[in-house]
Amino acid sequence: MSTTLPPTKPPAEVHPMQALLEQGGYDMPQRGDIREGTILSVSPQEIVIDLGLKREAIVPANDLARIDKATLAEITVGTTWPVYILQPSDREGNLIVSLSRALQEKDWLVAQQMMERNEMFEAQVSSHNAGGLEVIFGKLRGFVPASHISTLPRAATPEERKAQLASYVGQKIPVKIVEVDRRKRRLIMSERAVHRRWQREHRKHLLEEIQPGDIRTGIVRSLSNFGVFVDLGGADGLIHVSELAWFPVAHPSDVVKVGQQVTVKVLRVDKQRERIGLSLKRVQPDPWSTAQEDYKVGELVEAVVTRVSDFGAFTRLRTGVEGLLHVTEMADIRPDHPQSLVSPGDLLLLRVLRVEPERRRIGLSLRQVSETEWAEWAASYREKHAAAQAAEAAAIEEAAETATIEEAAEQIVQEEWPVFEEETVSFDQGPDQDGSEDEAIPAAVD
Fold first, then answer.
1. If one looks up domain 287-373 in CATH, what number appears?
2. What is 20-102's CATH number, 2.40.50.140, 1.10.3720.10, 3.40.640.10, 3.40.50.720?
3. Do 273 and 289 meet the contact criterion of CB atoms below 8 Å apart?
4. Any alpha helices (H) in 266-370, and if so which ranges?
5. 141 in helix, strand or coil?
6. How confident is the model at residue 229 (pLDDT cuts 50, 70, 90)?
7. Fold held by 118-196
8. Which of 79-83, 216-220, 298-302, 440-444 has the lowest mean pLDDT?
């Protein structure tokens, strides 16, 4: 029995392009792909690029407008550049690509790598808004929130905050990247994190190099009853109240204030406990070294009472040395207690009885000042005080007149050119892909 086989069908003709795809010989680009190609031609209308495909890619004029002039000058025939696939095929079958997007995507990759490496760098501030600073990062724009700026006072008024943020524009600040979100186009940086890290590293370095006897310059950071904390540039040192001046100090605020720059001498360094002992008075001449020349026995001197004890009153003289007004030298009739005659803060005219710099003592007398000498001194003091008050009143009156003139001028300006409330600038390009909007932190932009 013979079997008749049905006639075989001739194989269908395969289109050459289909065959090429099946063989993997043509890598069809997809939107969002990053490819590298060679520049074939450059014109103001478009750039043509060879991507190694069966057709050439075109960079349109509107994309070229987003590229800075310096980069455009580098795009010449024969050079290789990355491109971002926008449209695998437009209505005319052209492959449309973007150079600007590719350069941005490259910066996103660099930003991600720098964040993973915890890398610090400097970025230039390009603008600001109420929420923080915008900085330049390649072809992108990063954002530094106000809460991530270490030098911005937390208790600042809105006007002070705005002025402080504006002062950063055009400057370079140290930052590190703390968030990279390409989908939401968020590139967030922090200056505060860099400042803290820099402080830790600088404190360690400072403790290794600083030595007792060094003379350093620092800024007074805070005051306490027992002393002053000074920022030496990354590490704090303590000036004990006894090391503030050659004379007794009731409170550090009598000698220094927060924010003041001071020159200090390093007394001791405890590397294990990270403590540095400082002295302010030891960088200044010891007034007792010249006391013999500054004060002569028998002369009259002005002194301020600093404290009163059972046996007398301690007074501060013009050079800062401390003298003793013994109770027996206060009056012809010895008082029951010195406090019945003098109190801290009193300004007195006294006569020098003895100068003993080796014992750091100066003996003074109130009862040996005659009534005539006291009256002449009191009259002279009243004249000086009245003249000072008159000068102060004149200065206040002049300032008031100036302020009135400035207010009138400002009123005229406001009437002719009204000042409008500035709107908060947002760098965000609109809602995210998921439809939500980020009001707190702007997006990175071209």
1. 2.40.50.140
2. 2.40.50.140
3. no
4. 291-294
5. strand
6. very high
7. OB fold (Dihydrolipoamide Acetyltransferase, E2P) (2.40.50)
8. 440-444
Give, in degrees to the nearest 5, the angle at Cα 438 between 436 and 443: 115
- Six-digit token pair at 434? 């998921």
210-283 maps to which CATH number? Answer: 2.40.50.140
Give me the residue label for tokens 């890619």. 57
Closest CA to 109 of 82, 146, 86, 135: 82
pLDDT of res. 337: 86
Q: pLDDT exceeding 90 applies to what percent of the chain? A: 25
Minimum mean pLDDT range among 101-110, 271-280, 352-361 = 101-110
pLDDT higher than threshold 90 for residue 249: no
Q: What is the pLDDT of residues 384-442, one digit of tens each?
A: 777 767 777 776 666 666 555 445 544 543 444 333 333 333 333 333 434 333 334 45
Shortest CA distance to 207 belongs to which of 279, 266, 280? 266
Sign of CA dihedral 251, 255, 257, 263: negative
**What amino acid occupies position 19?**
A
Give the Cα separation of 172 and 181 in Å (integer): 24
The DSSP bridge pattern shows strands 322-326 and 361-365 to be parallel
As a whole-number percent, the residues of the chain with pLDDT over 70 amount to: 82
Single-letter residue type at 345: G
Sequence spans of domains, the chain:
20-102, 118-196, 210-283, 287-373
Cα torsion at 377, 382, 384, 387 (round to 10°)?
-160
Centroid of chain to Cα 260: 16
